[in-house]
Write a structure and sequence with these properties.
single chain, 133 residues, alpha/beta, Transcription Regulator spoIIAA, 3 helices
Amino acid sequence: MQHLQIAETAKSPYINFDCDNGFLEVRGRSIIENTFAFYEPVFKVLSEYVQNPQDKTTVHLSLDYYNTSSQIWIYNILKELNKINEIPGKDVDIIWYYSDSDLLEAGRDFQNVSKVPIVLKETGEGAGEEEDL
């Protein structure tokens, strides 16, 4: 299987998609002007992975800030991950890391549109326990 890794920049997040181990991480800022050019390769690898996923897929989403067009791609990624949960014997764990109330609210919004449960986990100083709604 493919392993996709994209370095973080001031405007784009770090992407680590290790298909062999069923691990996807998106971390950093996503304020990219051309989100299609950035996220399309990620989505392509994910779509291929969904055809034959590992028994357990773990997703870590830890974004400090993202723009509206990035939000659409995050939603599309979550929607694609829903397909894995529909396959018998396959599980997806999604953790949304947040550092402030805006990101917590965003995580709750994504919980409402995802069929896969999303665990909300605070990061940084004063981080509390995981919140699973």
